[in-house]
Write a structure and sequence with these properties.
The protein has 365 residues and is α/β, with parallel strands linked by helices. It contains 12 helices and 10 strands. It has a 7-stranded mixed sheet. It has a 3-stranded mixed sheet with strand order 1-5-4. Strand 7, helix 5 and strand 8 form a beta-alpha-beta unit. The longest helix is centred in the last third of the chain and has 18 residues.
Length: 365
């Protein structure tokens, strides 16, 4: 049994969340720091056992998620994986793991789900007579190029379907692993069918290791921006999220670095702390920046209308109040100086060709 007074400091090396946190949704029970998710036999000195990553294969009946959010520039998306091994402590997607009776804390980054049938489901969806093409987003919830993509290759299979059908696709990732699919991306880009967004939170490798322990280092992400740009692919850099009191002082430097590496445009999102993410982030602050905890959370509340999170449309992605206005102004000035304030992206939908699904009557023609 763990003494709750010391739980903040029991961090797992190479993991983002300090613990599995507390969830009162969906009857999810609080998990102890020495629970069944530890590899009991793997111990180094007096430190806690290493946390093993487990992957469960999932077979969904459908693969495209639709939304009507006025905050988003797309109405459909695909997530090849549930959970994310990158372990970004601030990840707004963490609470989705509670739907599986798993913790949004360490479970989210160690108990993953993969959807190997995603590409075939997508092909079947595109083949339906009533399907109408529009930009499809990949990586809006969990990263499509997290480490297990090397094993499963689901994202690449999805891109192959996009190329086969000439369907527009936008990718969001924190990983330079996207470069491994540059052969497909170039073919899509030539026909104005793709763009890639690289998320850069900080340029400081130490801060990145604490915030995003298993995501590629900032320098590798920027190198990916350079390679994609040199290949003729539209590259957008998103400073997502801006963590007040931790990374906000780097805004101008990140914008300049993105421009130097050939980014075409830039944006930002203030940190969001929905549901269980808020207490997890406060645990993280207590573990790594205890002297800043009060200041950081004070600014968060100022940006979020006096609360730790603001779920309302429009304001949730932009923030509100003087702090949010200041960040927006700084981004605008830095972008203008770097020449990143004029680009507009519009992907084509008129090239779409419906695929022929194996076993269908269309195979006869």
């Amino acid at each position: 049994m763990v003494d709750k007074s010391t739980e903040f400091h029991l961090t797992q090396k190479g993991r983002g969340a300090p613990s599995n946190g507390v969830s009162q949704r969906f009857n999810l029970q609080d998990r102890e720091i020495d629970g069944d998710w530890l590899d009991e036999k793997e111990r180094i000195g007096d430190s806690a056992a290493k946390l093993r990553t487990d992957v469960t294969v999932e077979f969904p009946k459908s693969i495209i998620n639709y939304n009507t959010s006025p905050d988003l520039p797309f109405d459909r998306s695909i997530n090849a994986y549930r959970g994310c091994e990158h372990g970004c402590v601030y990840c707004f997607a963490r609470p989705t793991h509670a739907y599986h009776d798993l913790s949004p804390g360490l479970d989210f980054e160690s108990k993953l789900f993969a959807k190997p049938s995603a590409a075939e489901l997508l092909r079947q969806t595109f083949a339906k007579p009533n399907y109408q093409p529009a930009s499809l987003a990949i990586g809006t919830n969990t990263d499509p190029y997290q480490p297990i993509e090397k094993c499963y290759g689901i994202t690449r299979q999805i891109l192959e379907v996009m190329l086969e059908t000439l369907h527009p696709v936008v990718i969001t990732t924190k990983s330079n692993r996207v470069i491994e699919d540059i052969d497909l991306l170039v073919q899509l880009a030539v026909q104005q069918l793709t763009a890639v967004t690289i998320s850069v939170t900080t340029l400081d490798p130490r801060t990145a290791r604490l915030l995003e322990p298993r995501a590629p280092a900032p320098a590798r992400r920027l190198e990916a921006v350079r390679k994609l740009s040199e290949a003729g692919i539209y590259v957008h850099v998103n400073i997502a999220p801006v963590v007040p009191g931790i990374t906000d002082h780097e805004i101008e430097a990140i914008v300049a670095a993105a421009a130097d590496c050939g980014a075409t445009s830039i944006s930002f999102i203030p940190m969001r702390l929905p549901h269980e993410v808020a207490p997890l982030f406060e645990q993280w602050l207590e573990s790594h920046y205890p002297e800043r905890r009060s200041k950081v959370m004070s600014i968060v509340r100022q940006i979020r209308g006096g609360k730790r999170n603001d779920p309302d449309f429009h304001s949730r992605m932009r923030g509100q109040g003087p702090w949010a206005d200041l960040i927006r102004t700084r981004i605008a000035i830095a972008s203008r100086k770097a020449g990143l304030d004029k680009a507009k992206l519009k992907l084509r939908t008129d090239l779409f060709r419906r695929p022929i699904v194996k076993g269908s009557q269309m195979e006869l023609f």
